[in-house]
Amino acid sequence: MGTRGTAILNRKAMMVAIKLGITVLLLAAVLYYVDLHALWQKVRSVDPRWLFLAWGCLVVGYVLCGIRWAWMAEGVGLTVSVSRKINLYFLGMFASLFLPSTIGGDVLRGILLAKGEGRTGAGWQATASVLLDRINGLYALSLLVSLAMLAFHWPVVWWLGWLGGVAAMWIGLALYPRLHDRIPARFAAIRSLPIGDRRLNVRWWQSLPVSFVFQLLIVQAHVFLGMAVGLHMSWPAFAVMVGLVGLMAFVPISLNGLGVREAGYVGFAVYFGADASAAAAMSVLWLVVLSLASLPGAVVLWRVGGLRGFRS
């Protein structure tokens, strides 16, 4: 391995070490703040039926996301099998939870889309489909949080800052098709993507309600888990908490979002006057439900030959 390859590996190792440190610090802060005995009592006394309801919301949501991703792929010119995209979406969720953080779930499903079904030279289209899928979900999430925030009185600075950010997102969405053709020629692969194509626009707007329903399902799954551990908050409060924690988890500062979610749930629960131990217990159950819902992705990974088959 050359000097450059060694430097890349060293940078990756350093990033993993930093993320691990942040994860440990956040989890330690949560464990220090909450009543561990109360947390354990809440977790051990949970009625499994609440877990099943939350799991059902998440599985249905993953199926919807697989359909949305298939639509995005069709929009950028890839002929796709919807069932395969659903399978790859489950694989991506499994990878995000259980595989090393250097192998992201989005990277894994994007590469398998680019190489699957006899395709060649579809790398940029596959990458674009994954990015558009994520961005579509982000727009739906911001819309849901904005609606939920109307139920509360926020400091003016916070409210204006949030609305300014959301407005900038939508203005950027409207302006980008005009700017796309001005991308420098050296990025020809990006310029070749059919951003202004009617088919892609139709798929984008068709996907937005699906993304919104997915976000509703995610919030409802948390509501079920909150009910299981006695986390008493209104539905809009759950929506704000889940939405903003989800946005924070987009920033890759910890290992697969671990620590960020737990600290975020506890912090927002305390802000809304709820029990910190119940919020911590809910975060534990959410990790359990996430793991169970992503297990079909392990079967998909095994079918493609595991990590060795993926690397090949």
| Major sheet characteristics | none
> What sort of overall outline do the alpha carbons produce when their principal axes are compared?
globular
Provide mean pLDDT, rounded. Answer: 85
**Helicity level, as a percent range?**
over 70%
Q: Total number of β-strand segments? A: 0
The gyration radius over C-alpha positions equals: 20 Å
Into which percentage range does the β-strand content fall?
A: under 5%
Low-confidence residue ranges? none
Whole-Å distance between the termini?
A: 18 Å
Decide which structural class fits the backbone: mainly alpha
Number of helices: 14
Q: What is the H/E string?
A: HHHHHHHHHHHHHH
Structure description:
It is built from 14 helices and no strands. The chain has 312 residues and is an all-alpha fold. Helix 1 (3-33) runs parallel beside helix 11 (260-271), helix 5 (105-115) crosses helix 6 (123-149) and helix 9 (198-229) packs across helix 12 (276-294). The mean pLDDT is 85.
In short:
By secondary structure, this protein is mainly alpha-helical. It contains 14 helices and no strands.
